[in-house]
Amino acid sequence: MAAATTTPLKTKDFVSDLDVRWCPGCGDYSILKNIQKVMPELGVPKENVVFVSGIGCSSRFPYYMDTFGFHTIHGRAPAFATGIRASRPDLSVWVVTGDGDGLSIGGNHLVHTIRRNLNMQILLFNNRVYGLTKGQYSPTSREGMRSKSSPQGSIDYPIDPIALALAAGATFVARTIDVDAPHLQETLHRAHAHQGTAFIEILQNCVVYNDNEWLELEDRKTRISSALSLEHGEPLVFGPKGDRKGIRIHDGVPSIISLRDGDDPVSHGVATHNESHRSASYAFALASLSRPEFPLPIGVIRAVEKPTYEAMLHAQVDDAIEARGPGDLKELLHSGDTWPLS
Amino acid sequence: MAQPKKPVEDVEDVAIRFAGDSGDGMQLTGTKFTESTALAGNDLSTFPDFPAEIRAPAGSLAGVSGFQIHFSSEDIRTPADEPDVLVALNPAALHANIADLRSGGMVILNSDAFTGKNLERAGYDEDPLPELEDRYRVVEIPLTALNREALKDLKLSTRDKDRCKNFFTLGLMFWLYNRPIDSTLRWLESKFRGDVLEANLRVFKAGLHFGETTELFPVSFTVPKAKIQPGTYRNITGNQALAWGIIAAGVQLGRPIFLGAYPITPASEILHELARYRHFGVKTFQAEDEIAAASATIGAAFAGQLAATTTSGPGLLLKQEAIGLAVMTELPLVVVDVQRAGPSTGMPTKTEQADLLTAVYGRNSDSPMPVLAPCTPGDCFTVMIEAFQLAVKYMTPVIVLSDGYLANSSEPWLIPDVDSLPRSEVRYHEDPKDFMPYRRDPDTLARPWAIPGTRGLEHRIGGLESEENTGTVSYVPENHERMVQLRAEKVARIAQDIPPIEVNGADRGELLVIGWGGTYGAISSAVNEAREDGRDVSSVHLRHLNPFPSDLGEVLARFRRILVPELNSGQLRHLLRAEYLVDAESLSKVQGQPFKVNEIRARIDRVLAAGS
Ligand SMILES: Cc1ncc(C[n+]2csc(CCOP(=O)(O)OP(=O)(O)O)c2C)c(N)n1
Ligand code: SF4
Ligand SMILES: [Mg+2]
Q1: Contacts of A46 in chain B (CB under 8 A)
Q2: ipTM of the predicted structure?
């Protein structure tokens, strides 16, 4: 393997020479720019970076990164990434998937990859629609969404990516927003630093087929009331001055408490965010917060440590070599009962 | 062993089928008999035939498990059409197998099991034994009682005692065919402990002793050593050989092995076997399904591993979309399909060869890839090394078609000299100067294997059509056509690595019998017998099914008639007709069972009679 890159990398080092082909105004542009911005800050030689995607508008992503990239088949990117990372723990592996790619056709692989806790980042661009196939409802679309394939309104109940990731035993789960550059960048840093599968749902706008789906969260003015910004060790409060509110969680059931100016939220029963809570039930309570009844949690929902799949796999290889010596083909072929014939 | 007091007769060739309930331990009995027979220096071939249900109702026909072993002092290639001896531990085992027994053959049965209820469960209205005696030599032995008697003072439950009776049977059969007992004793001692060990040892010896003392057997038999190629031998099943072939490929090509698989009969043993050899650096990944297994395998190939994925028919179908991506991205990996009877779930434990067209054509669009098939259990080892060599040399996924028969049957295998195994160097591309991910080697048309972690080679690949050389996404019509042709041409060029066809028999004549895969033993035996009887017939066995050997057309043209025996409805015949415009005839069998030599022989005679 080549030696580590010596000169510091810049954003432009991660920009490939392929023209970006998303619709003007698509949320994917902002995500791309922010990832290209963060990459050099991570200190990983770019030859060690691999972007893996499935199929969808979002899954075109690897073509635009000047790293190693693999645009695979619909829904299976986490499985391809598993093969890469399990065999090559020296590589920094990033999966880019969509709400259709990751939750519909590829739901199975998403669940099992998260469950195994391979050290990789999975970025799910959630625009609540099938973009590439021109606008059918997706597994995250709201009930009743009118789309090409649901002219009378979707009769599917949506799935929540965060709750699914938690149910799969995710060790790192976060939600961020395409146009919130600082938060997106910070979340990418956190995800990269995490040892294990880091799952990030990125709320992404599809201008063409589902415009303004996340407007109240993307717009700074409304975000204060519609988003619950999560900070480890800080109380779960939201709302503008004069209309401050907090989230209380009792027996796993969240409710909203109104606060007056100057109130100490915690003494009024507002929960304190603990992303590394031993029990996942706190994170599930957060995941259950949905619009419009509750503000939508934005930030790191859960971050705990667990040995990774590849570390354990390679440890088994090392243990086996330690115990039996490196494999010897001749010895293998002659193991067990053999007999000479002359 | 005690000095045999009864006379011993030499026989050249014997086939025994052990049959009982699936809980009776027939597979183990057969395997132990096989190991000892191998040590005795006979040539042999085995065929285990077990039910799909792990535990079908006791005593039922569905629960019958069988193991046939054919051993000889001559060269043999099949488990034999008809056993000479049937060991039946219950009425169901008798009912399910008696039709196969050679007329005049011997039935050894557990008379204690032939009671009203068992007869009924086996579908017998009345006691079948009186009628049997007209056609076979029936030896009734109260196995259950003798076994219990031998263990009467041991503190084991009756149920546990009864479970030992397969070792009584084994002991008796060892006596009858004068098999060496040492390795079996050693195995028992290593496998069991305490009362169970004591019980098994006792009944095994009681079985031997019973043979010596009973009046039921006036003589015992022995099969002289076979005159086979000198060297060190071992028994090997197709699945084990396949797994070892994968390990050997890693060693010989000097790169780490990655196996992605999802359990499926009859391919699971390959995963089990490889999981035991992490000290060879083998990384096995049990995926959530076959799609993930194939995908992870392709990911590992992209990352520079010698990657394989193993499955059976239904799993192959799930993998095909991913395999198509490997064709498109031109990554080296080996896909193993241990074929079983289908369609759909079909008969999972039974053999068939009906995935050939799927392997050659079964992906969307023009998606060519090489297809290889081993012809004997031991050949599964060799074929895997070749498959990896081709995959890496031509940068292509390769399919290997084994089958349920090869997977589970065993043969004595001349252990190859490791130093003589093919070796080749695998080179990753490293030079960033003028690097283009789809620039091709002029000879092989292979693109470079440029793996992540190599500085200056950052590039993107994917399922979208790529521009020739540069690999950037391209929708240019002419480029697509060119790439389709290049992918086809690359696979076609593999023919340059295929050795000339070896014709078994005269290289021209009246009839050519052509087969592929696990039917080799039956076809070559039938053709050799026919030739000994003066028939004008030859045979060819294909290992390369895509591309075909470049001289296949010429070879076919040298024969007036072509017969293609296959365990499917004529898939190779279909390919031969399409490719060479020859009027090949099909001998098709789709019963989940391998060919009998006689079935092929009879057809050869018919074809030749019709032609003259
Ligand atoms: C096997 C297969 N089935 C269907 C498709 C068609 N297809 C491509 S992308 C897509 C949906 C993508 O939706 P999403 O993952 O949300 O990505 P987006 O375009 O919204 O970013 C579908 C159905 C395909 N490429 N492959
Ligand atoms: S269709 Fe939607 S998601 Fe796709 S590129 Fe256009 S705006 Fe983006
Ligand atoms: Mg989408």
Answers
A1: 458
A2: 0.97
